[in-house]
Amino acid sequence: MDKIRIVGGNQLSGQIAISGSKNSSLPIMVASLLTDQKIVLDNIPDLTDIKTLIRILKDLGSDISYSESDKQLSSIRQLNRRVNICSKNLVSNQANYEHLSKMRAGFLVIGPLLARTGYAKVSMPGGCAIGTRPVDIHLTGLRKLGAEITIEEGYVIAKAKNGLIGNLIKLSKPSVGATQNLIMAAVLAKGETSIVNASIEPETSDLISCIKKMGVQIEVRENNNILIQGTKNITGASHKIMADRIEAGTYAIAGCMTGGRLELTNFDPNLLEKPFEILRDIGCSIKVNKNSVIIEKLVSDLQPIKITTEPYPGFPTDLQAQFMALLTQVPGTSVINERIFENRFMHVQELVRMGANINLDGDKAIINGRTDLIGAPVMATDLRASVSLVLAALCARGETIINRVYHLDRGFEDLEKKISNCGGIIERIK
Ligand code: UD1
Known about the structure:
Layout: E1 3-7, E2 14-17, H1 22-30, E3 38-42, H2 48-60, E4 63-73, E5 76-86, E6 94-95, H3 97-100, H4 110-117, E7 119-123, H5 136-144, E8 148-152, E9 155-159, E10 168-170, H6 176-187, E11 192-196, H7 202-213, E12 217-221, E13 225-229, E14 237-240, H8 245-258, E15 261-265, H9 273-282, E16 284-288, E17 292-297, E18 306-308, H10 320-327, E19 332-337, H11 347-353, E20 357-361, E21 364-369, E22 377-379, H12 383-394, E23 399-403, H13 406-411, H14 415-421, E24 425-429
Parallel strand pairs: 2-15, 3-14, 6-7, 10-11, 18-19, 22-23
Antiparallel strand pairs: 1-23, 1-24, 3-5, 4-5, 7-9, 8-9, 11-13, 12-13, 15-17, 16-17, 19-21, 20-21
Helix pairs in contact: 1-2, 1-7, 4-6, 5-6, 6-7, 8-12, 10-12
Bound molecules: uridine-diphosphate-N-acetylglucosamine.
């Protein structure tokens, strides 16, 4: 199994072009199941989660082709990966454990598959070990649309012989996946569906924008209410996937931690308003341009801070682990309150092994800085936790070996290349 070796201490300076968003690509690729016409998607990142979803869709009968072309972005050349998907001839309505155990987002196929074929059998999902992560909100919503649901031998079996019927669905939590699943199911349901307390994460907005191009009427109203007009006339569409705001936030933190001058390009800085506000409060300089930012560590006496993870536009849980790595370098006591997932502190033990002083108290992590970090062999348990160890390693003394690199490959495109181009010492050991 591959490992990553990092020797810390170098400043990161230079330019990094942000890749297409994983969390936006996945639901939008699934939305291709809603139509028998072709969907063309640009800016798809080269990640194992994308490959896993391609396998799930191919097993269902989707015809998928893939092409690459160069695109010039300011002074950086980057590949544009285009995926063409045509789900005209579905051959199965079952998604297996083999793939769903690797990636929770595969569960999103249940909504569109059920709506299109009247039947779906989908394995209960796996994915990152960051809590129990049930699918009850997805299932309650599908039942509201008229689905009959049973759970047998680890599979969810959903039936709607006479099709789904639009309804009012109030989510008990603004679950991102449940909102996306239910939007897709409601698109093919008869009549209007209103999803109340929905996720309005930018990735959900990107899904909505693609589905609108497919000819569907969807409106996001006040109070996180999404209104969908069901239709059978769904066309093909071309769509460019939004840039990955979590990747951008992660490299912004890398810039702050290593003290270089890093320019992040090709993304919308407005989507990181809250994390950038926090970075400024800590003492970093962030110069925001239209599609790029320049990051520098501003002062040596950084300020401690309190952070609470919340649904968008609040502080994203997917940047929590990375901020924790940064806060080990900030003098004083900082507190992170994790409110989205109940068990998303698996990186704490590994950061402590590198010299951090962090105590856990229920859903809070108390970080006492600043401590010298020292390189060590570490192991990551989930995607964002893994990259927090990369950040810690970049400013640690000596060598860090990161095991279980497959987590990073699920979500960070060209990680080693992007970091080493900016002066970091990082290599993959096969
Ligand atoms: C998505 C993102 C993930 C991010 C998360 C929160 C993708 C592929 N993944 O995951 O990177 O960390 O949003 O922003 O987009 N919950 C239930 N019942 C359900 C569904 C969720 O109790 O049926 C709970 C979860 O356990 C969790 C919380 O709701 O505590 C939020 O989960 P959710 O928003 O659904 O996250 P995902 O869609 O899985």
